[in-house]
Write a structure and sequence with these properties.
The complex is a heterodimer of chains A (60) and B (537). With 60 residues, chain A is mainly α. Chain A is built from 3 helices and no strands. Chain B has 2 domains: 380 residues, 2-Layer Sandwich (Creatine Kinase, Chain A, domain 2), CATH 3.30.590; 71 residues, no CATH class. Helix content of chain B is 37%, strand content 16%. Classes of the chains: A mainly alpha (60), B alpha+beta (537). At the A-B interface, helix 1 and helix 3 of A face strand 2, helix 10, helix 11 and helix 12 of B. Chain A: Strongly interacts with the proteasome-associated ATPase ARC through a hydrophobic interface; the interacting region of Pup lies in its C-terminal half. There is one Pup binding site per ARC hexamer ring.
């Protein structure tokens, strides 16, 4: 492979990589928003008491 | 030099009975193990088990070359005694019960014969499931690639889920399990990693090579925590669950004065040849990519140390650096090295990455595992440098950070709102319909390597390329004759035989499918199986 075509391939790979990140990030954010939309039905009720009740004994 | 190495991962899970904060944690943990034992007994899911054998444990042996006097040890360091086996000496059970708790038999297990409670077992996938102090613990079978380490670690989460389901079905009530490392009220419990290292490597080289790496790798494998300080006294987000519980650089302890480098020296293998590096600094990861990076990069750094090629970096104050880095989710913090230079965690990680890339390139090392880890390591550091939020689909702490900060923004809350504290906790709930990690992953918001089906298979089957294969398969096929098992031995009692037969598995890579697969295919009677096995040990 010539230097020129190698570098153009690198460039297009970089662009693809950037697009890929864009897509992943968008999908990730949509997942977060979607979960937050229904968070009240997922979270345990009485947050303060529940967290206070999570008491562990020592471990390693 | 590669990213492949014999590895085993241990996880102590948080456990509660909802609405009963005073319930005895050891009793609850025993209930988990016992309920799983009952699943096994019912022939459910092809998961066979046997009692654990403590003969090989030597927790007071120090890797620096000395053993500590038993009388000087903190009671919680005595992990080699079967609970209740000896009078007058601390046992795992009595340690956990030494507070104001009732003894087993006087509370939750009132109606049960306590001698029947299983505290400790070996599973058909080669793992160990037991009660460690006040937590149920799963220790994964030995595997040789970072991906396999992830798979059998995830299998442990599934084992715990099934155990909790089983406990509820058996009428034992609801038990909730959490894959986290602190209750945010002063207590931390571990997720330990074990790496096989040649004994010829100087321990001091491990200490100097690993310390800067361990202080900084949290940026891609921390689990995230809302809470600052051992008591969680301030509601601030930090990268690591464990960082604030570390107080020393090097030491033997695991429960008090925790060190960045732990010196416990029990190889569970040929002593002259191997060391088992016992790593206690890590967070338990729910995410598959965070686990992969944690194990894969550590394998590469150990290889660099073995080759004498670890970057010559020395932190001025490693414990302080560990905590400063953890306390700054922007990753901008630079920590001071000896000599006055200051580097960020990303920059320190890049030095290790460059050394590993250089070594692999110069030696033509290009196996698929090494190539994957090098590529992912570089990619994640690039993302973290551009903007940590870009790595939210692969790094646990960033996914959690994004979830809790988005929630706080949406409702105009501070991180001290009780619902934020609950999200931090419920992130790690093992129930797939309640755990926030799982709810997020179900929306495709977390990268993964393995499907639930593959994880289920790893619950039932051992890795094929280590002694875990022989251990797991033996339990699947010959469990009634196995009276004890541990990492490096299997003990059989055969009807009519005059004494028990002990088969040693001192070579961690022995007993693989290639070695002994034919014995299992041949469907031998038990005495014939032992006869064919014995000469190998």
């Amino acid at each position: 492979m010539t230097q020129e075509s190698f570098s153009s391939r690198r460039q297009s790979e970089t662009q693809e990589h950037a697009e890929q990140i864009q897509v992943n990030t968008t999908g990730q954010s949509a997942g977060v928003d979607d979960l937050l939309d229904e968070i009240d039905s997922v979270l345990e009720s009485n947050a303060e008491e529940f967290v206070r009740g999570f008491v562990q004994k020592g471990g390693q | 030099m590669s990213a492949r190495r014999l590895v085993g991962l241990e996880t102590e899970y948080g456990i509660i009975r909802p609405g009963m904060p005073k319930a005895n944690a050891t009793v609850l943990s025993a209930q988990i193990v016992d309920s799983y034992a009952q699943l096994v007994a019912q022939g459910d899911a092809r998961v066979q088990g046997a009692r654990w054998d403590y003969a090989d444990e030597s927790p007071l042996q120090d890797a620096r070359g000395f053993a500590i006097n038993r009388a000087d040890a903190h009671p919680s360091q005595l992990t080699d005694v079967e609970p209740d086996q000896q009078e007058g000496i601390w046992t795992a059970e009595s340690i956990a019960l030494s507070g104001n708790d009732a003894r087993i038999g006087s509370t939750l297990y009132q109606e049960k014969d306590t001698t029947d409670v299983v505290m400790n077992m070996v599973l058909g996938n080669g793992a160990r499931l037991y009660v460690d102090h006040a937590h149920p613990e799963y220790s994964s079978p030995e595997s040789t690639s970072p991906r396999a380490a992830v798979l059998w670690d995830q299998a442990g989460d599934e084992v715990m889920r099934r155990a909790a389901d089983s406990a509820q079905r058996l009428g034992g009530g609801q038990l909730l399990l959490y894959k986290n490392n602190t209750d945010n009220k002063s207590v931390s419990y571990g997720a330990h990693e074990n790496y096989l290292v040649p004994r010829a490597v100087e321990f001091s080289a491990l200490v100097s090579g690993l310390t800067p790496f361990f202080a900084t790798r949290q940026i891609f494998c921390g689990a995230g925590r809302v809470g600052r300080g051992m008591l969680g006294e301030r509601a601030e987000f930090q990268i690591s669950q464990r960082a604030d519980f570390f107080e020393a650089e090097v030491g033997l302890e695991t429960t008090i004065n925790r060190p960045i480098i732990n010196t416990r020296d029990e190889p569970h293998a040929v002593w002259d040849k191997y060391r088992r590096l016992h790593v206690i600094i890590g967070d338990a990861n729910l995410g598959q990519i965070s686990t992969l990076l944690r194990v894969g990069t550590t394998n590469l750094v150990l290889s660099l140390i073995e080759a004498g090629l670890a970057p010559a970096l020395e932190l001025e104050d490693p414990v302080a650096a560990l905590q400063q880095i953890s306390h700054d989710p922007s990753l901008a913090t630079a920590v001071r090295l000896r000599g006055g230079r200051r580097l960020s965690a990303i920059q320190i990680q890049r030095e290790y990455l460059l050394a590993a890339q250089g070594y692999c390139a110069s030696r033509g090392i290009e196996d698929a595992d090494t190539a994957e880890i090098l590529q992912r390591w570089e990619a994640v550091l690039d993302l973290l440098e551009r903007d940590p939020l870009l790595a939210a689909d692969q790094v646990d702490w960033i996914a959690k950070y994004k979830l809790v900060t988005s929630f706080a923004q949406r409702h105009g809350l501070g991180l001290d709102d009780p619902r934020i504290g609950l999200m931090d906790l419920q992130w790690a709930d093992l129930r797939q319909d309640k755990g926030l990690y799982y709810r997020l992953a179900a929306r495709g918001a977390m990268q993964s390597l393995f499907s639930q089906e593959q994880i289920n298979q790893a619950v039932a089957a051992p890795p094929e390329d280590t002694r875990a294969y022989l251990r797991g398969m033996t339990l699947q096929r010959y469990a009634p004759y196995v009276v004890a098992a541990n990492w490096d031995a299997l003990t059989f009692a055969v009807p009519g035989a005059r004494r028990v037969n002990r088969v040693f598995l001192s070579e961690p890579l022995g007993g693989s499918r290639k070695d002994v697969g034919r014995l299992f295919e041949a469907n031998l009677e038990i005495d014939e199986f032992i006869n064919k096995l014995a000469p190998r040990a």
